[in-house]
UniProtKB/TrEMBL annotation:
<feature type="transmembrane region" description="Helical">
    <location>
        <begin position="137"/>
        <end position="160"/>
    </location>
</feature>
<dbReference type="InterPro" id="IPR043128">
    <property type="entry name" value="Rev_trsase/Diguanyl_cyclase"/>
</dbReference>
<feature type="transmembrane region" description="Helical">
    <location>
        <begin position="43"/>
        <end position="61"/>
    </location>
</feature>
<feature type="domain" description="GGDEF">
    <location>
        <begin position="200"/>
        <end position="330"/>
    </location>
</feature>
<dbReference type="GO" id="GO:1902201">
    <property type="term" value="P:negative regulation of bacterial-type flagellum-dependent cell motility"/>
</dbReference>
<dbReference type="InterPro" id="IPR029787">
    <property type="entry name" value="Nucleotide_cyclase"/>
</dbReference>
<dbReference type="GO" id="GO:0052621">
    <property type="term" value="F:diguanylate cyclase activity"/>
</dbReference>
<dbReference type="GO" id="GO:0043709">
    <property type="term" value="P:cell adhesion involved in single-species biofilm formation"/>
</dbReference>
<keyword id="KW-0472">Membrane</keyword>
<dbReference type="GO" id="GO:0005886">
    <property type="term" value="C:plasma membrane"/>
</dbReference>
<feature type="transmembrane region" description="Helical">
    <location>
        <begin position="73"/>
        <end position="91"/>
    </location>
</feature>
<dbReference type="InterPro" id="IPR050469">
    <property type="entry name" value="Diguanylate_Cyclase"/>
</dbReference>
<feature type="transmembrane region" description="Helical">
    <location>
        <begin position="20"/>
        <end position="37"/>
    </location>
</feature>
<keyword id="KW-0812">Transmembrane</keyword>
<dbReference type="Pfam" id="PF00990">
    <property type="entry name" value="GGDEF"/>
</dbReference>
<feature type="transmembrane region" description="Helical">
    <location>
        <begin position="97"/>
        <end position="130"/>
    </location>
</feature>
<protein>
    <recommendedName>
        <fullName>diguanylate cyclase</fullName>
        <ecNumber>2.7.7.65</ecNumber>
    </recommendedName>
</protein>
Length: 331
């Protein structure tokens, strides 16, 4: 089962924080831009405008809820260009602004891209500042800058790992390791959308362990718990990457199988049923079986209808004697 790794994500900057960053940056550039203008330095004022204009547009988009990470990335590149150009003319007075910008990279690019881009940016600013600053001073700035990049990367790494752990905890059933129902509706809706737009098949396999109450009553609740965990492992091992396993209820599991029409789904259901029959479950010295209702997605299906059809098929499998697979009954 695949979980999106937060290290690969362009870290999402909360909207309020993003607005605050934009405003702080605009005020800073505006103050220094006007200061330069007062000193008849029209060129540097224009350079600062290179940062102020995209920052203002990006701020406006953010306020109107239209902000995208790509806008922010593009804006940051222009801001960095402005700082690099002014480093050439102002030296250390401009270099000090490299520090805060480095941290922004780690908010809007993924860790790897932020590390590479911020190092490249810092290097350009340091080299351009050599025009008016001594090598010793630029060297000191360089050491401090690269310390900043390392610290920012470490913080970003820790935050990404914590984010992964939180996502895992929030979306995973503790006992069985299957996904819980938190993202089920969203995940099924995506399959429905992709079926409607691109014709990508999807199927549901609703699986219910047979006579589970008897297992609990005969071998104890703890043995029942262990069976659920082991059951989930058996199913997960057989599922391909396009299939997600959800714990749907007590002893009920749901497989959402993408890129999978009815025939393939039925094959998989029989494979799962067979594997469960063959498994010796700890503390349960009898053959365990399960019933499976299979429902392929159809054009007119709503989320509720799709689920309902898998439930009707499961009910039919139970009614016809259990330990069997039944596909959706409506024509
Ligand atoms: N050990 C354990 N039992 C659970 C858990 N969640 C639900 N159950 C039990 O699962 C049992 C489900 O029983 P039923 O719905 O009657 O189903 P069944 O006995 O499997 O019968 P059929 O589904 O008709 O074959 C109930 O006794 C629940 O208490 C759990 O997390 N751990």
């Amino acid at each position: 089962m695949k979980y999106r790794n937060a290290l690969q994500d362009s870290t999402k900057l909360p909207r309020n924080a993003s607005i605050a960053f934009h405003i702080a940056a605009i005020i800073t550039f505006l103050v220094y831009g006007l200061y330069r203008l007062l000193h008849d330095d029209v060129f540097l004022f224009m350079v600062f405008l290179l940062a102020i204009l995209p920052l203002s547009i990006s701020l406006l988009l953010e306020i109107k809820h239209l902000g995208k990470v790509q806008h922010k990335q593009f804006t940051l590149i222009l801001v960095c260009m402005a700082i690099a150009i002014s480093s050439y003319y102002l030296g250390y007075k401009s270099l000090i602004y490299v520090f805060p910008t480095i941290f922004i990279f780690f908010f809007i690019f993924n860790l790897q891209h932020a590390s590479i881009l911020s190092s490249f940016y810092a290097l350009i600013c340091l080299v351009t500042a050599l025009k008016i600053e001594s090598f010793a001073l630029v060297w000191r700035f360089g050491v401090a800058t690269f310390d900043c990049i390392i610290f920012a990367a470490i913080f970003a790494y820790i935050i990404a790992k914590q984010k992964d752990a939180l996502i895992y905890l929030a979306t995973t059933d503790e006992l069985t390791g299957a996904l819980n129902r938190k993202n089920l509706a969203a995940s099924l809706s995506l399959s429905i959308e992709s079926f409607r737009h691109t014709g990508t098949d999807s199927s549901l396999l609703l699986i219910d362990i047979d006579h589970f109450k008897t297992v609990n009553d005969t071998y104890g609740h703890l043995a029942g718990d262990k069976l659920l965990t082991q059951f989930s492992e058996v199913i997960k091992q057989l599922l391909p990457a396009e299939a997600k396993l959800f714990r749907f209820g007590g002893e009920e599991f749901l497989v959402q199988y993408e890129n999978c029409g009815l025939e393939k789904a039925l094959d998989m259901a029989h494979k799962l049923k067979h594997a469960v029959n063959q498994t010796r479950f700890d503390g349960v010295p009898v053959t365990v079986s399960c019933s499976i209702g299979v429902a392929e997605l159809r054009v007119k299906d709503s989320l509720e209808e799709w689920l309902k059809q898998s439930d009707i098929a499961l009910y039919a499998a139970k009614k016809s004697g259990r330990n069997r697979v039944v596909s959706r009954l409506d024509k």
